[in-house]
């Protein structure tokens, strides 16, 4: 099982298609899955009589096939039984390892010449697994549901891409997604996390309604409204108390000044 994929930027939310990637004019990029298998196709030239086929890995011969005597010789024990060939001598490499990454080329030998057609650049990737969405929700002061989401997956590396897509096909790159949902002003919303690397694409959707049903209960909304009213009443009481204290302080100062002036007035007669 193998993939021929483009070395082009992802175009999110527009769908995906099959394509071929070439790192240069003579090397075709092939993506394989760790532990899987891959086939590197070969097209025998028809204009010449090929006697020997030689496969090279990073410039070193790994196997030769004598077409006249129908003999295959593996030149490196590392490959062992993992190397097989189709009827047309395409290379079938099984039980792929990360160490198999590299450049593969083929050489045709005739009685008079040697032909080296275009080769392959093999890349090995781990499949992404166990996609999950970590969520945290809370009731905001304006009685909407604040949603915090994180997309997580096993075997992610620097070749992995993540993005979020909502019911309106609006996309946001990255693993984290934050939004607010108001059931009074919005219909049900779904948020989809998508994880992709060159050999895997996974997606998982969550519903705003199901995420928020625990915090948007009547009891919570009532408690939120009660908290606002209580805060307002306490603030009013504090203001009233401060006003009373200021008034009493000013009243006491006025009474003292009035008594002092009365004593001075009486001293004029004695």
Automatic annotation (TrEMBL):
Signal peptide bounds: 1-19
Limits of the Ig-like domain: 117-205
Xref: SUPFAM superfamilies: Immunoglobulin
Keywords linked to the UniProt accession: Glycoprotein, Membrane, Signal, Transmembrane, Transmembrane helix
TM stretches of this protein: 227-247
Gene Ontology biological-process annotations: positive regulation of type II interferon production; T-helper 17 cell lineage commitment
Keyword Secreted: no
CC annotations in GO: external side of plasma membrane
Keyword Transmembrane helix on entry: yes
Coiled coil regions, renumbered to chain: none
Subcellular location: Membrane
Name of this chain's protein: SLAM family member 6 isoform X3
Source species of the chain: Dipodomys ordii (Ord's kangaroo rat)
């Amino acid at each position: 099982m193998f993939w021929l994929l483009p070395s082009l930027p992802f175009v999110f939310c527009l769908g995906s298609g099959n394509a071929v990637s070439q790192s240069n004019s003579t090397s075709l990029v092939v993506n394989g899955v760790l532990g899987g298998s891959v086939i590197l196709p070969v097209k025998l030239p028809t204009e010449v009589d090929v006697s020997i086929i030689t496969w090279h890995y990073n410039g070193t011969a790994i196997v030769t096939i004598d077409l006249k005597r129908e003999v295959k010789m593996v030149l490196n024990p590392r490959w062992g039984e993992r190397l097989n060939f189709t009827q047309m001598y395409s290379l079938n490499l099984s039980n792929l390892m990360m160490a198999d990454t590299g450049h593969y080329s083929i050489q045709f030998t005739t009685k008079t010449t040697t032909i080296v057609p275009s080769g392959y650049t093999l890349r090995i990737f781990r499949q992404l697994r166990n996609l999950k969405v970590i969520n945290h929700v809370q009731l905001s002061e304006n009685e909407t549901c604040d949603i915090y989401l994180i997309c997580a997956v096993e075997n992610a590396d620097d070749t992995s891409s993540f993005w979020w897509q909502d019911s309106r096909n609006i996309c946001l790159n990255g693993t984290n997604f934050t939004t607010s949902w108001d059931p009074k002003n919005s219909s049900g919303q779904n948020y989809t996390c998508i994880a992709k690397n060159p050999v895997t694409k996974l997606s998982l959707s969550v519903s705003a309604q199901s995420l928020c049903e625990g915090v948007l209960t009547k009891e919570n909304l009532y408690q939120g409204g009660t908290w606002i009213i209580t805060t307002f009443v306490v603030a009013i009481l504090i203001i009233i108390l401060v006003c009373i204290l200021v008034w009493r302080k000013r009243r006491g100062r006025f009474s003292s000044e009035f008594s002092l002036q009365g004593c001075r007035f009486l001293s004029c007669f004695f």
